[in-house]
Structure formats: structure tokens, C-alpha cells
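Researcher: Re-running this chain for the archive, since the previous output was lost when a drive failed. Same request as before.
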Amino acid sequence: MKNFFLSSIVTIIFLFSCGSKRNISSENYEATVSSEINYLPYYLEIYKADSLLTMKKDLEAFQKLDSLFKIYAPLNQLGYSEMLNYIILSQKLGKNIDSKKYIESLIRDWGITVKELKKEKTLTNLLKDSFSDAELLSLEKQHKDNIDWEYRKILKEMVIADQNSRGDQNEPQVDEDNMKKMIHLIKTKGYPDIPTAGKIADEGIMLPVMYHHFARADEYKEFKALLLENIKKGKAGPAEMRQLMMGKYNLVYEQKYFSQTTRDIKHARGITTNYPKDTFSIRRNKIGLPSLEYEEWKDNLMKQGNN
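Model: Regenerated C-alpha cells:
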């Protein structure tokens, strides 16, 4: 069992109509998504844009993002950086967009530092022409001021407790306590997305790893419903739901849920699943995950890049 929990850490790859309104605003910009907006289609379109960008089809990628951002207030997810890519593509292609408002949001809401932006040579002139150094630093300060640091501290303590308990007798109780705390935190403070809690992964606060361990907790179904609600709001990420559900199926059923499980020497207890491939695609689409083909293709590219 300890191997199962240790392997869950390895499985995390940082790509990474329903909800209340999300407001990303500044003096010059306010993007409001009404309560009817469901971000599941947004995620599925972002994977397409990411594929186009990877294949260096810049114009098509820009057009995909441009049309999407007319419907949704853009996110800037870890591993996809869709808003940043949109700005860069607009500069490369000479497209007339209100770049300033997006840069303001990148810094103030999504925690992209001025130092990071200045590394993008494509943005050098844009930053110089649109902002003073004082304005850029002010946006960074606004991001830090908006972070709920107490929330962030609690999350860090929970993840540390999660990791320290692996393989110990108190492991199930820690998982139970952490799930109850997460439900309470989300209901009282909102979901810990970047605008709320900052870039928590920078401090090793790996929520998907902790979620993977929630399989045995009594409140599993309640937390799953709450997580899906926040995915639809554009606050939680589909990969977080994948880890939660994979924890259940790996632990309880010895199966994968979003792709084929086959027996082998390393995972001798695995139960082979013979469902049609469409079954997995439907399951994945329901929580905003990309197709298996896309994920395998992207994983192979990442492996090639590391060799």
C-alpha cells in the first residue's frame, strides 16, 4: 500500500454552468463571467489551442484563443499559460488586442512576475511602451496584497501532514481530517486558485497529490461534487479531479479510470479493463480532461524534450 501512495507523487505532472461570478478587474479592465458560464468547454478548447501552438500553427492558435476569450474571462493555467501565449502571439502576428489589460491581469491576478515577463523578448517593447516600472511593481504588490496568506499557510500544513503520514498508522485519519478541512475551507474561503491563494505549487503545496489520498474518506462524494462545481467555475483544474478519482479507482478497484488498465509484473493486482476507448474519452470530457490521444502525444513530446 505504501508503494501506491508513493507512486501517486510520481503521477503528478505539472503541465497541470454553474458558479458564482468571477471578476478580474482593474481601472481599465473588467471581465465578468456570469453564473451560467461553464468552464468545461473552455478547458477542452485550450487543449486544442495548445496543440496548434506546439505544432507552430501560430495564427490558428491565436484565432482559437481570441474566439474563446470573447466568451470566457481567460485563465492562465500552469502548463498552458493561455493568456500569456495569447499576448505573445498577438505581438508576433501584429494583431490589435488590448494587451495592457491582459498583462495587468497576468501580474495582478495570476502571479506572473515582472521578471518573468521581461524574459519574453517579444514583449519587451510592449512592456516599455505601456507601463512604467512603478506601475509594474504596483501590480505585483496588488497580487501579494490580494493573497489570503492564512489560507495558504493552512494548505501547506495540510500537505506536510499528508506526506508525513504516508505508511504510518495515522494515515487514514490524516486523510479524513484533511478532506474535512478542505471542504470547510472551500465553502468558507472559496477555492484556492491563484488569485485567491497565489501560486501555491511554488512552495510544494501539491493539492492533486493530497486529493489522490482522499479515496477512503467518508466525505469523498461530497468533496468530488464540490470539486466539480469549482472546475465548472474555472477555479479548480481538471487534473485535480483526475487525481481524486484515480485515487479511488487505484486503491479500491485496482483500475485506472481514464485510460486502460492492464496486468503486468509491476502492477500484478491490476484488473484489466476492456472498455471501448470512447468510454474513457467520454469520462475525460465530463471533467474537462483532454483526449487520451492528446495526452499521450504531449507526454511523448515532453519525454523527447528531456532527452
